[in-house]
Amino acid sequence: MNKKLTYHLVTLGCPKNDVDSLHLERLLETGDLQPTDKIQEADSIIVNTCGFIEQSKAQSIKTVHELAKIKQAGQKLIVAGCLTQIAAEEVQESEPLIDHIFGVGEWEAVAKTLGVGNVPIHDIPKSVIKVTGPSAYLKISDGCNAPCTFCVIPKIKGALKSASVGRLVNEAHRLVEAGAKELVLVAQDSTAWGEDLGIKNGLPELLEILGHEVGPDVWLRLMYAYPSRVRPPLIEAMAKIPNVVPYLDVPLQHGSENMLRKMRRPWKNSKTREMIANLRDAIPEITLRTSLIVGFPGESDDDILELLEFLEEIMFDHVGVFTYSQQKWTPAGEYNDQIIDSLKNERRALVMELQQKISEKRASRFIGKTMSMLIEGKSENNNGDPIAIGRTVREAPEVDGLVFAQGQAEIGSKVKVKIEDSGAYDLFGRLL
């Protein structure tokens, strides 16, 4: 009996890369290749890289170097993904022990290199779906048509490419059958879904279809909504579809109109205020998350003050704050008014200090409420009493806080929790 070939897959970057890696795993499965956590026992080592910002590029290169150091005779080292899409020669020159390099979406080519036949990557029947924990990511599109001056994604991923309704419904069913209790919809711009397919303002309809198909007990969570595309039809759909959770991630990138113009983002704060007011009117209990970039070229003290004032006014529940990363192949990467790293870090700390206070205040509004909680883990307190760990609808996986509740429940179950206390990021309570 021939020994089955094995591989070890390392995934870096965002949830969209996690989805790509899952597709690759399913493709390799059709060729009877088996994954292994033991790197030294793998016939092949595969790295799905990230190239979004300089820190992620550096982490990808570091990871490749570390794997190359422990690579054994006969092992293949394969590097693919976002970083190699834009800097294949640089990656190859940095590590001569790499055997093969592939770009974004070349998963069939990776599989063929490992001996798998010609199997369509997006339609693999009878394949086992792997779900880690009770949540799973459903990538509804890839690529982006937005002209943001700081972003290299269009260079890496290309133009918008939406997945068909049929494919998404099929994928959603597979994920739920595999145990997913929450589907997190991700894309570079989720609100643009369907435009390349000739579907105008298609996301509300997609949410309605998916909500019906997966059933009322499966949460649907929407991430990466482009602010100017959060229009009344989408808001109405979120309000009326029972299993679309009252949560929305809207990356604004800044609160200064001057900076937003330079970033080529929707720059009228009056429009943003209107959009957020509409969301809160239609869905009073909604949790809002945004992402911000500080230290963008030309950013002044006045721009930071405008951002701080905007945050105090809007009162987001969750905010991710990132320092600007100068990128090749982007207009902003060529700007002459770059800001030194120390000032970027000071400004990030200033914004985070304010937002921590805001987040703490926003979290406190849940004290005394009874909420549904999706159990993700178990622990115990200093007295040895059981503690259930999980999330409510107000916390997205991996990016927001957690809920710690006294009591015991099975991982993957949904239970009721009475919220008794809160911090800046986490909630505390007891199971009912």
Walk me through what this model shows.
The protein has 432 residues and is of the alpha/beta class. The chain has 3 domains: 6-113, Rossmann fold; 135-364, pyruvate-formate lyase- activating enzyme (Alpha-Beta Horseshoe), CATH 3.80.30.20; 367-431, OB fold (Dihydrolipoamide Acetyltransferase, E2P) (Beta Barrel). The chain is 35% helix and 22% strand. The protein contains 12 helices and 18 strands. It has helices at residues 15-30, 54-70, 82-94, 107-113, 153-157, 165-177, 203-214, 232-240, 257-263, 269-282, 301-314, 341-363; strands at residues 6-11, 34-35, 44-49, 76-81, 100-101, 135-139, 141-142, 161-162, 182-186, 219-222, 244-249, 287-294, 318-323, 370-380, 386-391, 403-406, 414-422, 427-431. The strands form 4 sheets. A 6-stranded parallel β-sheet has the order 6-9-10-11-12-13. It has a 5-stranded parallel β-sheet with strand order 2-1-3-4-5, with helices on both faces. 41% of the residues are buried. The model is unreliable at 121-129 (pLDDT under 50).
